[in-house]
């Protein structure tokens, strides 16, 4: 397919912002990327998008949206909560030859699997205040996506890819790595954004694990909440709310004196299976 969309053919993003009076709102996590070279880098880092429908959450003034339209993606469906941007993006919709659709909605209420056909991917510079709940919702259905390429605060990205034994290793690391292969692609300094946030940012890519450890989502949430809720305690203590902790640990093949931060993902999945077996959960 010959790509005909030229991100630079439209007015500069700063002009779009000035013309539409788009002051950034902190409550909506609005930190914009106005450098099209940078947004191009993010879009290309998503890999081969030929024939893929990309869901973008929070297009804002449209820097990343333009870059996504310049890839081989079949279509881009952008979900934006702030109606000011929905209006401002109409010029991009018109220039997209039918490849861009804007949906005005809260992304937390939208199921991308219902929204667009497969093959589908998500590429987004996420609003940081809702980045984690959005990611968890998508991880539940990760096998429905060709991939997720997402910008987070670096501190959250560190937790997503943390290995056992590190201080960032926690619930989010376990759940994310149980469902997906998570890879850090690159960091961006705060000054790359307008207005700059307080912290550095990181692009992380997720692809479905071909053979995830079998375990039930809700039980994994319960087990990791109990274990990391008291991360300094030994598991035989912290897992007591789940029932007979010693028996569960024995069944999962784990040492009761271990602490949550030492247990690999497979250990938590084994624990979740042990809990499910005892409570009859699926
Ligand atoms: N993609 C743009 C960029 O890179 O310049 C903007 C990214 S900005 C970090 C986050 C965007 O998400 C904003 O446009 C904001 O209005 C939007 N947003 C915030 N909360 C949202 C939600 N719950 N659902 C959909 N969009 C949301």
UniProtKB/TrEMBL annotation:
This is Ribosomal RNA small subunit methyltransferase A. Pfam families: RrnaAD (PF00398). InterPro entries: KsgA/Erm (IPR001737), rRNA_Ade_diMease-like_C (IPR023165), rRNA_Ade_Mease_Trfase_CS (IPR020596), rRNA_Ade_methylase_Trfase_N (IPR020598), rRNA_adenine_dimethylase (IPR011530), SAM-dependent_MTases_sf (IPR029063). Specifically dimethylates two adjacent adenosines (A1518 and A1519) in the loop of a conserved hairpin near the 3'-end of 16S rRNA in the 30S particle. May play a critical role in biogenesis of 30S subunits. Belongs to the class I-like SAM-binding methyltransferase superfamily. rRNA adenine N(6)-methyltransferase family. RsmA subfamily. Residues 38-210 form the Ribosomal RNA adenine methylase transferase N-terminal domain. CDD domains: AdoMet_MTases. The keyword Methyltransferase applies. SMART domains: rADc (SM00650).
């Amino acid at each position: 397919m010959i790509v005909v969309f030229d991100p630079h053919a439209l007015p500069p993003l700063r002009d779009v912002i000035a013309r539409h009076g788009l002051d950034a709102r902190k409550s909506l996590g609005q930190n914009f990327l106005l450098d099209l070279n940078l947004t191009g880098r993010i879009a290309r880092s998503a890999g081969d998008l030929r024939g893929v429908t990309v869901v973008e959450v929070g297009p804002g003034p449209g820097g990343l949206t333009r870059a996504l339209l310049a890839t081989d993606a079949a279509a881009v469906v952008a979900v934006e909560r702030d109606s000011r941007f929905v209006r401002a993006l109409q010029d991009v919709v018109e220039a997209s030859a039918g490849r861009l659709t804007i949906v005005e909605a809260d992304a937390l209420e939208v199921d991308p699997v219902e929204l667009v056909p497969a093959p589908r991917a998500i590429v987004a510079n996420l609003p940081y205040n809702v980045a984690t709940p959005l990611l968890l919702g998508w991880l539940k259905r990760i096998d429905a996506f060709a991939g997720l390429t997402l910008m987070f605060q670096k501190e959250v990205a560190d937790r997503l890819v943390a290995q056992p034994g590190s201080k960032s290793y926690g619930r989010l690391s376990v759940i994310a790595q149980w469902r997906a292969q998570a890879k850090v692609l690159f960091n961006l300094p705060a000054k790359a954004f307008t207005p700059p946030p307080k912290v550095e940012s990181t692009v992380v890519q997720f692809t479905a694990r071909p053979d995830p450890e079998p375990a039930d989502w809700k039980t994994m949430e319960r087990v990791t909440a109990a274990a990391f809720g008291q991360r300094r305690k030994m598991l035989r203590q912290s897992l007591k709310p789940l029932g007979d902790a010693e028996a569960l640990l024995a069944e999962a093949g784990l040492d009761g004196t271990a602490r949550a931060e030492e247990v690999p993902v497979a250990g938590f999945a084994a624990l979740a299976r042990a809990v499910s077996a005892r409570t009859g959960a699926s």
